[in-house]
Amino acid sequence: MEKFEHEYNAEQIQVLEGLEAVRKRPGMYIGSVSIRGLHHLVYEIVDNCVDEALAGYCKNIHVKIEPGNIINVEDDGRGIPVDIHPKTGISAAETVYTKLHAGGKFGGDSGYKVSGGLHGVGASVVNALSDWTEVTIQRDGGIYKMKFERGKITQKLERIGDSDKTGTTVRFLADGSIFETLDYEFEVLETRFREMAFLTKGLHIVLEDLRGETPKKADFCFEGGLNSFVEYLNKTKEKLHDKPIYIEKDGEFPVEIAIQYTTAYSETILTFVNNINTIEGGTHLEGFKRALTKVFNDYAKSHNFLKDKDNNLQGDDIREGITAVISVKVKEPQFEGQTKTKLGNSEVTGIVQSMVNESLSTFLEENPAVAKSILEKCVSAARAREAARKARELVRRKSALETTTLPGKLADCSSKIPEECEVYIVEGDSAGGSAKQGRDRRFQAILPLWGKMLNVEKSRADKIYGNDKLNPVIIAVGAGIGADFDITKIRYGKVIIMADADVDGAHIRTLLLTFFFRYMRPLIENGNVYLAQPPLYKLSKRGMDDIYCYTDEDLANAYKDLEEKGIPRDQLGLQRYKGLGEMNPEQLWETTMDPARRILIQVKLDDAIEADKTFSMLMGDQVEPRREFIEQNAKFVKNLDI
Length: 642
Prior knowledge:
- The protein is of the alpha+beta class.
- The protein has three domains: 10-220, Histidine kinase-like ATPase, C-terminal domain (Heat Shock Protein 90, 2-Layer Sandwich); 226-385, Ribosomal Protein S5, domain 2, CATH 3.30.230; 404-534 and 602-636, 3-Layer(aba) Sandwich (Rossmann fold), CATH 3.40.50.670.
- Helices cover 36% and strands 20% of the residues.
- The chain is built from 19 helices and 23 strands.
- α2 (35-54) runs antiparallel to α4, α2 runs parallel beside α5 and α11 (429-438) packs across α17.
- The longest helix has 34 residues, at 368-401.
């Protein structure tokens, strides 16, 4: 990677304001004090290392989770400057860790060309929210060290030895009085660092978890960059062409794009600015979509893929089955709001559009076989879109003519306030009947489903409208599907999937979650989807209240507690529930539907990339990835009903 030739010393560290508010309002700086905020501390320190890599100086980053949930991050970058800062009168390193908005990332005369840590609060915020922090710097022929406790310096920066290496090592223990938990999740960090390595070609990131008896290790380095990223995303999908289409342009706004089409019906487009995941898109995504639509329409017309030259392919037709990653580097990015999720720099639109227009047009002309396979899929998608439009209009006309637009099997609730209403999507008419009798009619609605549902991973939208299993769900939720979905129109604040605790029930849950993820994703993102947790067992004895157990561990604990009370196992009756239909209305209410006693699992979308891969693997056409998953996870299966 080309180095950004610029001085990086104390004068480049600019101070904007102090640090006082961080411990009082940590959520303002890291989002929350939950486990998500805890992980954010690690990201802030690693982001600083990645910024050194973007500048061309850092090749290796080593992250360790040490026993006791101590984080250790080491890089081989230039090392934080150790000379005295001209404004603060203390070392530049201490300034970075004790002053908010102090860093080498502000203004044209900064130490970095581009940076992901936009606000320069990373190091100081981590320091403020940690019980203690140690920073070791190798630079200018020496080894320097300083220590902090809860943001305040306890050991001034001092030279402790000599070294011909460069780099920075940061160790910290997050403050247990601030965070809800200090228990880091290896898989969450692993996913984030894999993404970072994809986006920074050639950067080597190692993550080690040294807690527990068996250490874990993940090692990432991708010389293929975004090509490797796209291949990873499409690992479980059938590809239309073997290698991704790669587009790269250097200059004032470096742009890197990788594109690959699959036989899937959904699109996956990820966008990044300075390695920040812009999940809401922005001007770089707008420029890409415009160019994509123009290039493929121009090619389709000039090569007679469209019978009617006046009928253009729409953007949705062209993006069906696409997997694309767009990465741009912007020196002074403008984001809408403080969330860094939507790029606002207007000049980026034209740069990306022009670049994709030129490069993609050339690629299609030079690779006619690939162009043909993609265009045939686009034309097929256009036909399906028209069929879906007709089906959608038919559903709307039918609904308008009926006296009620709600599905016949739906037992609605009396309340019309979405925030307090909930709908149970129940497997089977038998369980649906019990749920209808046992529910609180004021706020609980019941929608029974029967038989296997449509697998939307293998179906286009035209197959979904009018489907006798899915249409009742669409109408009951009341907010449309796909591009027409409007979260403000949902009829229920909670959409609860209630299925049997067996293989068939798990399949139905997966089918419904696939549908919600592909066609009602805001419902999941907004936290409206839940899984009901029916009990697996009931322990009973005359003269004793029934005890319901939701897991094998619950059952073992219940036996142990009762034995301590003098009630042996052989005096207890044990019932294993194989289905919801085995419970009467009263039992279903007190175990699974009563808000005071039930267990609901909220479906969260922490990682859309992994969710996309998982749904493709479980429900897609490719059998081999699914077989591998089953072989790797079969040993963890419990209570498999055959």
